[in-house]
Design a protein that fits this description.
- This protein is an all-beta fold.
- The protein folds into 3 domains: 1-25, no CATH class; 32-84; 93-369, Neuraminidase (6 Propeller).
- Helices cover 2% and strands 42% of the residues.
- The chain is globular.
């Protein structure tokens, strides 16, 4: 015989555990808040209150659960396999190291990329150096190689202070561009008669290891990447510039042809990317260029016009946070520059003034990493 109270409780239960919130249902844990929702996937800046919070994409129906809660760098895992997480090789802080002013510099300074303004002192490099161009980051650690030296050095991006020795490259190299998937840091070419590609594991200090060969022997090439592919463009080979080449960063091997630059004879240029688009700016062709051009990194092909920098210059560096790209310092043909320009990578158009670095200089190295 079913007791009346038990019978009433059973009739009121839906059969779906999540709906049975009364004390008689057997579920003693309090009900959680309803999921947040939106017409698109959450982003790393969709800030949950705690691990386990949920978010529903009302367009696709996919449910996401927060697995890491860090303001602006949250991780969401989707039930259909969509992961939303920070880009490991970028960060909120843009860091510039070294350069020439007029002798080699050991200055390190930084900006918060999302907020336009002048740079602030970060610390000092291990040595005074030049010709660093684009460098590499895991988000947490920023690593600088090249620079007329075989010395590799690193900083902890969120903590201001002096750089620390990391190890040595396989050769003393000047003007090698670099790419990173957040795990590996890879330097491509450098010097005018050098097509060497080598790499390190960013989390583990040590010396460089051979990766393969670039198609071209170039120096001062601009480089950028997405999660899987690293691309080198431009650079001086002794007589002019060179087109785009690419590597797959997780494997070793030689570079392959990617496509043609829009303005081919560039050297002393720098590049920035998000997960989709790579943007190259500046350089000499043979005049000092203010031109910006872009490629879609996942699709082999030629570059297209993006817009223009605030002035024509070369021998600078660049960094980005995955949304905004900045070009830093350089030489305009008559004087050293302290200018920082920026664009929004997703939107074609001309650059705007961001602020100034702490000292005018050319041929510094740049990267971005975590601010906290």
């Amino acid at each position: 015989m079913v007791l009346p109270l038990v019978q009433e409780t059973l009739l009121n239960m839906s059969g779906k555990v999540g709906d049975n919130l009364g004390t008689a249902s057997g579920l003693v844990k309090s009900a959680t808040d309803a999921p947040d929702s939106g017409s698109s996937d959450p982003t790393v800046s969709t800030n949950p209150s705690a691990v386990g919070d949920r978010f529903i994409n009302t367009t696709s129906g996919e449910l996401f659960v927060a697995t890491d809660v860090t303001a602006g760098e949250n991780i969401w895992k989707g039930q259909l396999g969509t992961d939303v997480e920070p880009i490991k090789y970028f960060g909120a802080r843009g860091i510039t190291l070294g350069g020439v002013n007029p002798s080699n510099s050991n200055v390190i300074d930084y900006v918060t990329i999302s907020s336009a303004g002048d740079a602030t002192d970060f610390g000092d490099a291990v040595d005074s150096r030049r010709a660093c161009t684009n460098q590499v980051s895991s988000g947490t650690r920023g690593v600088f190689g090249s620079g007329s030296s075989d010395t590799i050095q690193y900083v902890t991006c969120a903590t201001t202070g002096n750089a620390t020795d990391f190890g040595d490259l396989t050769r003393s190299v000047s003007g090698a561009g670099a790419v990173s998937n957040g795990t590996r840091g890879i330097w491509i070419a450098g010097n005018e008669a050098d097509n060497v590609i080598e790499y390190v594991t960013i989390a583990t200090t040590g010396n460089g290891t051979d990766f393969g060969d670039n198609l071209h022997q170039v120096t001062d090439n601009g480089t950028c990447n997405n999660d899987t592919r690293g691309v080198s463009g431009g650079g001086y080979d002794g007589s002019g510039g060179r087109d785009y080449t690419y590597i797959t960063m997780a494997t070793t091997g030689n570079a392959a042809d990617f496509g043609d630059m829009d303005v081919i004879s560039w050297s002393g240029l720098a590049a920035v990317s998000d997960k989709t688009k790579g943007v190259w700016g500046g350089g000499i062709s043979p005049a000092y260029q203010d031109r910006l051009e872009y490629i879609n990194i996942a699709s082999l092909g030629d570059a297209s016009d993006f817009g223009n920098l605030t002035d024509g210059r070369s021998a600078f560096t660049s960094y980005g946070n995955g949304t905004r790209a900045c070009w830093v310092a350089g030489w305009d043909g008559s004087s050293l520059s302290n200018i920082i320009d920026y664009v929004t990578i997703a939107s074609l158009g001309n650059a705007s003034d961001f602020g100034d670095v702490t000292e005018a200089r050319q041929r510094p190295g740049g990267l971005s990493g975590d601010a906290s």
